[in-house]
Specification:
The chain is an all-alpha fold. It is 77% helix and 0% strand.
Amino acid sequence: MKTTTHHLQTHEKDMKNNLLTLLIIASIVVISGCARKTEMPAQYKVDNENFKQSVILLNKARDLSNPPESENQSSFKLSRETEEKLFSNTEEGIRLGKLVSDEYLDYINPELKDMFKDKLIKGTEINYDGLMIMESGAYSSEGVQKQIQGSQLVIEWINWFRKNGRSFEDKIFED
């Protein structure tokens, strides 16, 4: 009987130690998870929202300009409604992108300022200028050239963001 009681007491101590160890490990995991997630400094909250909305609108515009049914066609015509949505998304995306401060972009990632402003925003502006030349009805090589040049810059942004975006997306999408 004495051996059984001693064995139960030992087993009970082991269980308490294991539970304590488990609680300590769980606490460390929770604390480290919270510590990793830094809150966006107040001065960057508006920039963060403008950045997110700019990227979202420009992605929507790009999707509108490349509908799935156009994939195997050398040329296609967008409906007037789709064109208007594409133009308004592009204009608003550019406008919001220009409002984003360099300091915010540097805070997020040291390369983001150049990539966002010089590739995505600038490339979209150049592409949009080319679209507007073509929209005016005056087919010109300048309009086509601008679209190609702008698209190349945007593609550089897309490739860079795919490669690097995961490293800082927690800072951007903290909420």
